[in-house]
Amino acid sequence: MRCRAYCSPSSAISRCCWRTRLLAAGRVADMPFEWIPAILRKSPEMAMFLAIPIGYVLGNIRIGSFSLGTPTGALIAGLVIGQVGIEASRELRWSLFYLFLFANGYSAGPQFFQALKRDGVKPMALSLVVVVVGVGVALGMGHVLGLDAGLTAGLFAGALTQSSAIGTATDALANLPVSSETHRLLASHVAVADALTYVFGAVGAILFISVIAPRILRIDLRKEASALEEQYGIKTKSDGVLSGYLKFAARAYRVLPDAGFAGRRIADAEQARHQYRYFVERIRRGQADIEARPDAVLLPGDVIVVHGRSEALVAVGPLFGKELHEPELLDFPVSILRVIVLKRQLAGPTLQELVDGKILSFRSVGMRSLTRGGQDIPFGASTTLSRGDIVTLIGPTQAVERVAGEMGQALPATVSTRLSVLGFGILIGVLAGLPYVDIGVFRLTLGTSVGVLLAGLFFGWLRTERPALGEIPQPALDFMINFGLAGFVAAAGLQAGPEFVRAVGELGVGIILAGVAVTWAPLLAALLIGRYVLKMNPLLLLGGLAGAQTFTAALAAVQEKAGSRIPVLGYTVPYATSNILLTTCGGLVVVLAYGWR
Question: Where is the RCK C-terminal domain (predicted)?
Fold first, then answer.
């Protein structure tokens, strides 16, 4: 072979291009572009990091409300790239999967344990129905079609859109009494079956929850949403549209002798028009500033600042006196603070009951947002709080800090991650999953993947009990969840690539039809039980079904058709529960399917 075929004539062999060196070393066949697979085989981590961005682009292509999502896109990209025969690093892919499992459990922890204690029982029941029926139908379909344990587990994972079950299933396969070659084959089958059934799992969930289920229930989604919003005291806002109306404002007034509130205590003045919310924040008497205590008396000539809802200031402003333009007096600090709800007495009562019962004082403070389990929750007077909720408050700094102390603990404006919690949490989870008991030919063990997931649950719950441990920022959790799972399934696809084409040819449409049954049977069972046994509100039930299927796109489809975000109120608890149960059951399906055969 001559160097000049690939390099300039003046180049010596020692300075020849790197492709020629590979050719000269016999590592690459002398064919166009054959160097690409050779490099990927030599450095399989490059193949994984190639599959992730391709999967991101593929997974975020939208057709209406439907998209594959990054994990499934990465799996498909891995299957295609893996056709050239690439052995992905086990240590790298499992490290990424542990990051995903811990972050997933950490995010779900507060909601999961709260649901065990109180009104989350009904939404949790939806998850239990989906999981039990899903496992049963997957095992039944696998037995009828003669699928092995890997294909059955992949059928379960793909049809229920729970790609994380690939990891727990693969982990469980390692404990079966089979040869290493058989284990490798079964592990590749998990990814193959997941890829074949996931598409209908996603499309089928959207179609059932947003179209078929409302017809079965005979409801009009928009009418149900309007009635439920009115019940909760929630006003819907259009996405991407900002109102020019200022909900809160501050005004300065000079108290006049003939004003309605002259000579009255601040507490009396603030409660005189109980249908409005307004508060006296500052008092300037002559050249001195007077503390605006509830028992302070408003005297003629005082210049005061009143803060409250705009409609309240319009109604009660003349009762204070003459409005003034006082930039210096109106220049007081206003804070926006994120607070984690920790106080037990706040969980259960509605916001209105908390205020009326003097359990929580929102004097001078407004709520901007409520986040539960990573989802923004619409809120109103009838909304209830849960421990672990993140509330964003706005108002004068001292008032906001006071309310934050009454609710729980303010979250620092930091982007740093408490690596000690992350590292020790994963380590504890791995150690918890190592012990085993041999029962006949089976090895009974929790498994390192389930151990890490449970450790994430525990530390997520612990942060609501011991806030001093620190909070892992939500952006960091989102990265670990999205990138960790995408990297793991991409590596699983690389390993399963050579087996994919053969398996598709042998399985045919049978496994696709089996996936239809595994997708729709659990949803139908949960719908009927939720409506006619648990008596759930139909719109919250549909949100709960999307959560039980752990498929956010189905929730978005329901919200779009309802013209409201309120179905999310039924979504968060089933989502947290099913994320744990469906992931864990990947290993259970493997054991049961292998034992059945």
Answer: 238-322
CB atoms within 10 A of CB 423: 11
Alpha carbons 332 and 251: distance in angstroms, whole number:
12
- CB neighbour burial string for 210-228, b if at least 16 within 10 angstroms, e if fewer: beebbeebebebeebbbeb
Residue 520: what residue type? Answer: W
Q: How wide is the angle at C-alpha 10 spanned by C-alphas 8 and 16, nearest 5°?
A: 60
**Confidence at residue 247, expressed as pLDDT on a 0 to 100 scale:** 66
3-state class (DSSP) for residue 168: helix
In terms of DSSP bridges, do strands 334-341 and 288-290 run parallel, antiparallel, or are they unpaired?
Answer: unpaired
Assess whether 381 and 307 both reside in one domain: no
Specify the residue for token string 């608890």: 573
Rounded distance, CA 431 to CA 244, Å? Answer: 56
Q: Is 315:260 a contact under the CB 8 Å cutoff? A: no
Co-location of 322 and 340 in the same domain: no
Q: Which two tokens stand for residue 67?
A: 């998209």
| Phi–psi pair at 369, nearest 5 degrees | -155, 160
Q: Are residues 343 and 403 in the same domain?
A: yes
Using DSSP bridges, classify how beta strands 436-439 and 442-445 pair: parallel, antiparallel or unpaired.
antiparallel
What strands lie across the sheet with 278-285, from one edge to the other? 288-290, 278-285, 303-309, 248-255, 321-324
Q: Residue 417 contacts by C-beta under 8 Å, 6 or more apart in sequence?
A: 472, 473, 476
The DSSP symbol for 14 reads G
Whether 489 and 48 have beta carbons less than 8 Å apart is answered as no
**Alpha-carbon separation of residue 277 from 264, 313, 366, 458 (angstroms):** 18, 9, 10, 41
Angle, CA 532 vertex, CA 530 and CA 534 arms, to 5°: 45
Note whether 434 and 82 are within 8 A (CB).
no
Is the pLDDT at 13 greater than 60? The verdict is no
What distance in Å separates the CA atoms of residue 335 and residue 403, rounded to the nearest whole number?
Answer: 12
* Residue 374 neighbours by CB distance under 10 Å: 17
Does the structure show a pLDDT above 90 at 133?
A: yes
Pairing state between β 288-290 and 278-285: antiparallel
Query: Do 259 and 306 fall into the same domain?
Result: yes
- For 3, residues 6+ apart whose C-beta sits below 8 A from its C-beta are 11, 12, 13, 16, 20
pLDDT tens profile 471-519:
788 788 888 888 888 888 888 888 777 777 777 777 778 888 999 999 9
Say which residues have a Cβ less than 8 Å from residue 498's Cβ, sequence separation at least 6. Answer: 82, 83, 85, 188
Whole-number Å distance between alpha carbons of 146 and 284: 84
- pTM reported for the whole predicted model: 0.70
Residue range of the domain that includes 30: 8-37
The answer to whether the beta carbons of residues 7 and 20 sit under 8 Å apart is yes
Asked if residue 455 belongs to a domain, the reply is no
Residue 207 contacts by C-beta under 8 Å, 6 or more apart in sequence?
Answer: none
pLDDT tens column, 96-122: 888 888 888 888 777 666 666 655 577
Tokens found for residue 512: 């696709």
> Same structural domain for residues 252 and 322?
yes
